[in-house]
Amino acid sequence: MADRDSDVSEGFVLDSSVALAWAFEDEANAYADAVLRQLRTARAHVPSIWPVEVANGLLVAERRGRATRAQTVTSVELFESVSVFLDDQTPALALGAILELARAQNLAVYDAAYLELALRMGIPLATLDGRLRAAAAAVGVALYAPAERAE
């Protein structure tokens, strides 16, 4: 994972729902796969909670018998191979702007962190979460639409 460049404004915000879909066969879908392919050329920005949220999703899956430890290791290797740019402002905004956005859009604070980052950077949001997609539409954040290329 890379630290976020302070002057970078291209790319998209990557919600953990998309990343976790890469880890579980029963959550695989064309949108998540297309987002993963785009990471070859596009920049994914994430709030600083992203690694913790993804790690928790993997551990919960192990505990519930949805994944083995070996599958988690493979998923971690995938996550570590993609360039995501961690936002360093998330913690400072959590008790202010992010909390207010969560309240206004009826979201969990961690979901609002993704939305706030997309708003602040002026870039689209890649998510599979229905409530987060609706909140993005309500505040004028575009949903990320991966460009499909012939390979």
Any idea what the CATH superfamily is called? 5'-nuclease
Secondary structure: helix percent: 40-55%
At CATH's second level, what is the architecture?
3-Layer(aba) Sandwich
Mean pLDDT: 90
The end-to-end span amounts to 26 Å
Order of helices and strands: EEHHEHHEHHEH
- Side by side, the strands of the main sheet go 1-4-3-2-5
Structural class: alpha/beta
Strand content: 5-15%
The CATH class is Alpha Beta
Number of separate helices: 7
Radius of gyration: 15 Å
- Total number of strands: 5
Largest pleated sheet:
5 strands, parallel
Count of discrete structural domains? 1
Briefly note the CATH topology name.
Rossmann fold
Poorly predicted spans: 1-9
Shape: globular
Description:
This protein has 7 helices and 5 strands. By secondary structure, it is of the alpha/beta class. It has a single domain, classed as 5'-nuclease (Rossmann fold, 3-Layer(aba) Sandwich). α1 (16-23) packs across α2. The longest helix has 16 residues, at 90-105.
List the helices and strands and how they pair.
Blueprint (H helix, E strand, L loop, with lengths): L1 E2 L8 E3 L1 H8 L6 H9 L5 E4 L2 H14 L5 H13 L2 E4 L2 H16 L3 H13 L3 E2 L3 H10 L12
Parallel strand pairs: 1-4, 2-3, 2-5, 3-4
